[in-house]
Each structure stands twice: as C-alpha cells, then as structure tokens.
Amino acid sequence: METDTIAAISTPMGEGAIAIVRLSGDEAIQVADKIFKSPNNKKLQEQPSHTIHYGHLIDPKTGDIVEEVMVSLMKAPKTFTREDVIEINCHGGIVSVNRVLNLVLRNGARLAEPGEFTKRAFLNGRIDLSQAEAVMDLIRAKTDKAMNVALSQMDGKLSRLIKDLRQALIETLAQVEVNIDYPEYDDVEEMTIPLLLEKCTWVRDEIKKLLQTSSQGKILREGLSTVILGRPNVGKSSLLNSLVQENKAIVTDIAGTTRDIIEEYVNVRGVPLRLVDTAGIRETEDIVERIGVERSRQVLKEADLILLVLNAAEPLSEEDERLFETIQNMDFIVVVNKTDLPRKIDLEKVKSLAGGRKIVTTSLLKEEGIAELEQSIAELFFEGQIESDDLTYVSNARHIAVLQQALDAVEDAIESAEMGVPVDIVQIDVTRTWELLGEIIGDTVQESLINQLFSQFCLGK
Asked: In angstroms, how far apart are the furthest CA atoms of the chain?
C-alpha cells in the first residue's frame, strides 16, 4: 500500500477568490508543519482533527513569507482517503497557487497522479470502484438529474444492490459445495437444482432491471447526441440558438452559411443534449461546403436523435424527401419551422413521410413551439420515468458491458440447470456471474483496469 505523501491543486486554474492545494499521506501534517506558521506558533500535529487554522506559509530555506493562508487539518481515518489530509486555502491567482504547490513539493510531498486521491480512497476501503467512478460523473454532470444519478451511485445505491446479488450467489455456491461433498444423500440433486434456479432467476431479473435503465442512465451521463438536420436556410441554426438561448451559430439568409459542425450542450427538461448543427446536406460544387456536408453525413450515423427541420413556407422538395429516406430507421422529430409565414408545405404528406414520429410546428422568429419540442424530446427517451427516485440508474459504459456479460452467464446457468446438466458444471456459470458482478465494485477487477480508470480523472481529485 502506498504511504508516501501526495499533493496537487484541487481547484480549477485561473483567477478566483480562493484556491486549494491538497495533501494526503502519512507525512501530510509534518510537511505542512514545515512551512506553516500560525500567530501562536502552535504545530498542526498538536491540533485536533477537522479544524481550520489561519497563518502564513514560510519558505524554510529563506524565511520569506510565501502566502497568507487558511489550513484545514483532517486526521486519519475520518478523511476522504483515510489518510492524514491537509488542505491549504490560498488566494486564487495562478501565481499564488503554483507558488504554494511548489513549496509543498520542495518540502516532502510529490505531485499526485490524475485521480490518485480517489484511487487511495478506493484502495483504503473508503469507497468501492463504482463509487469512485461516480466521483468523476458528479464533476462532469451537466444537469441536475445527471448529478442526482451520480450522487445516488456515490452514496452506494448501486454498490449495495450488486453486493446483495453477489451474496445470494455465493450462498448458493456454498450450498452446492455442501451437497456435492455429501453425495450419499439421495435427494441432493432434488434439493440443489431448485435452489440454483430460484437464486439465479432472481439475480437474472435484477440484472435485467438494471439494464433497462442503462439507456436512460447513459444519456444522463454522456448526453444525447442530437443532430439538427435539414436543407440550407430552413432555420437549423436558429433552432440551435433557440435551444441554447445564445447566439452560438451564425444566422443569415444566405444558403450554406454553416460550413462546419457546431456543437453545444443544452439542458432540456433535465436531459443533456449534445446538439450538433450540421452543414445542410445537399449536392454542392463548393469544396469547403462539400467537406462540411461529408462531416454532417458522418455525424448523422452516430446520432441518438435527429431534429429534421422543414420550411413551412415552401412546398416539400425532393431534397426534403431524400432526408426522410436517410433517417427512416432512426429516432427523429420533425420540426416544421417558419409557421409565421403563409403555409405552403403539405402537412399530410409530412405526416405520411414521418411514419408516426412526432411533428412539432415552430416559429423560431417569434419563439413559438420550443416548449413543445423540448417536451417531445424528453417524452421520446424517458416517457416520464426520469422522475422516479426508486430506480437505480446504470450510466457507466463499463458497468453496462459487465452487466450484460453477467446476464449472459446467469442465463447460461439457468438454461443448463433446466436441461439437467450436472450441478458441478452449472456451478461454473454461477461462479462466472459472481466474478463479473465483482468487477463493477472492484472486488475481482485487475490492477491494470484500476490504473486505467483512475488515469481518466482530473488532477487533484
């Protein structure tokens, strides 16, 4: 177990009221005592835990004052890392915080690796792996609902369910071992198979429930990749601006103004949308615009949702119909824009081409129809379930992949048991399910995976 003392800046770089340099390790308090001087000259080591102290940082070599600070003292084990932790609160300038960090590093600490504080919390048993991953989800949350999902996972809601499933499996495996060890009893097989089927069926059903929330959870975590599609000059950029409520895209009356991909995150009824305004997909001789069109086609293939924008003041064109054909097998909502102008579009034909998909009419110039569009997006992907606090959302791609493998393994066990396969063979699939579930919380995960996961964290967390 690592016991050296690590340090890093734990607040964003830039100008601000305060910045925090965090230390953790066996010598965190001793390092701080070397450079911290309080008005009463008391040592931090002698102070009670979870207290904060005013003073100055002094360079021991020169005796110069480096910064005026407040130092938070937290002694093990009641800390995030379960090690001694010092947090130095200094002024939030770039020069100030770097001077403090350099002083700390020169006096016994080393620079922390990305995510190393959270990694130590995991290695010291403060949190499990799923809770550690939720820390980064919390930092990256783009809506209140995404934050609530991360908080729930940090609180251990997913961990507790996974542990309950593993406990049921390990108890079943123990019973199977006992029955195998005492084959002289005639009813061993009769007792073991029903027990296996009962427990494995329950585990399978619980895993299925988790996977049913995975698509929603993944959207809340990563955002819904949403492409705004349509002929040039139908109002795609205006729609982007209306949803973002800022003028992020250039809006003109000249066809082909958008020549590149514009992305923006938007909070729509608690659903984070990664909005992509594309260049109009059409045949063009303009080399630059053609590149934008090709990029648009690629983004379209990767989209979760298409907002197809049509011009209500013009008849449907062959180009519009080709766009309907392009997205026919995808999730899309039709936005009939410019309803403030005399209508020339055939709405019945639009309904026919939409094939039952939602159609929303808007006048982006008058800011009409946006609320209905936002509601349609939320209903399309969540159908009202997003408000449920009882659901345990699985949002992490790694967790989803492992759960799917665990589901396959437990279904193999159930199928084998029902076919009359010997119990010791069925036991292999049950054990495999138990091991896979352990990967989610870190009980059976490889060290290389742990290192890879924490390397994705920001420095100082």
From this structure: 88
